[in-house]
Amino acid sequence: MRRLRFITAGSVDDGKSTLIGRLLYETGAVLNDQLAALERSRIRNENGSVNLALLTDGLMDERLQGITIDIAWKYFATAARRFVIIDAPGHVQYTRNMVTGASHADLAVILIDARKGVIEQTRRHSAVAALLGIPRIVVAVNKLDLVGFDRGRFDRIAGDYLGIAEKLGLKGVHLLPVSALEGDNVVSRSTRTPWYDGPPLLELLESAPVDEGIEARPARMAVQHVIRPQAKGFHDYRAFGGQVLSGTFRKGDAVTLLPSGATTRVLSVEAAGRELAEGPAPLSVALRLAHEVDASRGDWIVASGAPPILSQDLVADLCWLDEKPLVEGARTLVRHGTAFLRASVRDLSRRWDLDSIEEKPLTNGDRRLAFNELGRVTIRLARPIPFDPYGENRLTGAMVLIDEASGRTVGAAMIRASAPPDDEPSI
Fold first, then answer.
1. Is the pTM above the cut of 0.90?
2. Structural domain of 55
3. Does one domain contain both 92 and 144?
């Protein structure tokens, strides 16, 4: 069974760190010295039990404040599957961290405090999950022990959330009653929720279907460098090195180089000085081609039978990561694959209101995105690039915006489609 990467999200004090700690503890993923450190810690739960949240709150500031600040990656395994937990911060000011983590996830676990119900951050995290195309959502209604495992309370929260899910177009939503602190419905079924007849969280994670993965998509490789050894006997050797972003390359495959459009076939697939039968994603390989073709860093080699879109004008959903707002007309650098090229934001038409879960048109006097905001933009690039829509391929459909002066990453974009070319000159 394939490895499952899942992101956990929730508002401050929803018990997310405790839930993750419980999963790690119950599945034997905690080392003996970590357990000993927990036992010695003076930071305890109100009932005096060991605080499992300390297993995930790694930064000193996180422990002092009782919140998650940075993304943490945790790993564990059961007999059925290997897992990667992407622990994202819950506070609104760390929306950018949530976006970064969600871009890698196969499933999202969104926590709701049973005492508070659906709140602003629940809607925000759900909207981000929808924007980034996470295919499956588990909603863990936590702290049911504090409301007497009241079925009525759970049903009301479930109804509220399903209304949000329908509005966002979320599919594959499963509502789960849990107490992370006491372990109810986390690893095993709880006798205190006889009205819930579904599986516990761990069983849901073990049985969740996982996308066939990047290797099942059309073959794509972004050229990182041209390999021309100078050693004796290699004067006629020429190969293109890079990471296979999706699909698999094999000897004899018909391929196209983009943006030039030149066509040829694969003569051999090599890695570490030896020839391979195939080069699947995400392996780094060297492709030798049958014909002399001109390509350099930033170009793509793709399967001829399933080419990507080639366009200079893009429509994208953008999460703005810089404290200085993005304004319409701004110039920037874009990194897409291994290519760096100049770009400008030609149109900033809509902004996501993550509180009301609505996409709102922007007026002429308000065409800007502030720090942590998400919006719909049209971007003109210095030259055409090949891409797949983000919903079809997260790697080839994503790009980052970089400030030319400082080199800082200021935006993360999900390419949705090509845009009609405008009349303005190229960058």
1. no
2. 4-207
3. yes
CATH of the domain at 63: 3.40.50.300
Q: Choose one of 159, 187, 207: the last residue of a domain.
A: 207
How far is residue 399 from each of residues 224, 276, 415, measured CA to CA in Å? 16, 30, 8
Domain boundary among 207, 231, 257: 207
The one-digit pLDDT tens for each residue of the chain (427 residues) are 678 999 999 887 888 888 998 898 888 876 555 655 555 555 555 555 555 666 665 433 444 444 444 567 888 999 999 999 998 775 656 577 778 788 889 999 999 999 999 998 898 889 889 888 898 999 999 999 999 999 999 999 999 999 999 999 898 899 999 999 999 999 999 999 999 999 999 999 999 988 767 788 999 999 999 998 765 566 678 899 999 999 999 999 999 999 999 999 999 999 988 999 999 998 999 999 999 898 999 999 999 999 999 999 999 999 998 999 999 999 999 999 999 999 999 999 899 887 777 888 887 777 899 988 899 999 999 999 999 999 899 889 999 999 999 999 999 999 999 998 766 666 6
CATH code for the domain of 267 = 2.40.30.10
Structure-token pair, residue 395: 């790697």
Comparing C-alpha atoms, which of 353, 244, 242, 255 is closest to residue 298? Answer: 242
Number of domains within the chain = 3
Collapsed DSSP state (helix, strand, coil) of residue 53:
helix
Residues 6+ apart with CB under 8 A from 363: none
